Amino acid sequence: MLATYLIGLREGLEATLVVSILVAFLVKSGRTERLRAVWAGVTAAVALSVLAGWLLSYTGTTLLRDYRDRELFEAVTSIAAVGFVTWMIFWMRRMARGIAGDLRAKLQDALAVGTFAVGVMAFLAVVREGLETSLIFYSAARGAVGAGPLLALTAGVLTAVTIGFLMYATAVRINLSAFFTWTGVLLILVAAGIFKYGVHDLQEAGILPGIGAVAFRLGGVLDPSTWYAALLAGMFNLTPEPTVLEMVAWVAYALPVLVLFLRPQRSAVPA
User: Fold this and answer.
1) Within a domain: residue 271?
2) Using an 8 Å Cβ cutoff, are 139 and 124 in contact?
3) CA distance 199 to 209
4) Could you read off the pLDDT of 74-102 as tens digits, one per residue?
């Protein structure tokens, strides 16, 4: 639940910031009549994202009846989710400072074209976050019982919307650079667990070897019924008997990505 809450908070805040930038620009420029187009685009993006999440779940649980096909599908979605997470955190790290100016420039161009273009721009700006959220949530919440992960994701999104509204409507400010850095580190660890899960699915499907080569056994040390075991399992996909290849995959992803992400950014040297 903590992992899915973090996903909802991070992706939700990115989408909320995008929408607040668009709304603020239209309000300040006296183009409030175009706000309906923005909200129509946002609504369509949210609807498509929910549909995508449902399709992923329906495919994995209903359409694919063969065990190996399901494992392969889940492996592919897990690896794709890891790719999206990695791209997203590095993209936001690079673009955070200039995203507002870039969005305003694109919105100015859309205003020159017409109302429909404004709606399309708002749709495209939000749908990317929504589709990423659907894929990452599906990969992170597989195997969970009950509605807990979905409620946690919803709580994360609602928290992000609340933060975005407070930042837009009041003088409340948060250090977005620190926020995206800390959530980026946590998401890298979540992605490492998803990648580990994907490797395990490939082993279950018979694509990769080593399904019986256990790296270590935590059954006598880590009681799965305790809250901290559930936290470790949900956040980092730490299982009682991971295979050697799973742990190699976890380390091979987490360590280099963390080093690259935490490495200080070089400032551009003026010519």
Assistant:
1) no
2) no
3) 10
4) 899 989 989 988 988 888 777 666 666 77
Number of domains in the chain: 1
Residue 194 CB contacts under 8 Å (≥ 6 apart), including other chains = 78, 81, 82, 85, 136, 139, 140, 237
Burial class of residue 212 in the structure, from the number of CB atoms within 10 Å of its CB (0-12 exposed, 13-18 middle, 19+ buried): exposed
Between the CA of residue 34 and those of 23, 27, 105, 109, 180, what are the distances in Å?
9, 9, 16, 13, 30
pLDDT at residue 269 tops 60 = no
The SS3 call for residue 138 is helix
**48 C-beta neighbours (distance < 10 Å), count:** 16
Q: Is residue 49 part of a domain?
A: yes
Neighbouring CB atoms inside 10 A of 109's CB total: 12
Q: Is 143 domain-assigned?
A: yes
The range of the structural domain enclosing residue 184 comes to 2-262
Strand partners, 146: none
| 59: DSSP letter | I
**Which range is least confidently modeled, 38-47, 83-92, 248-257?**
83-92
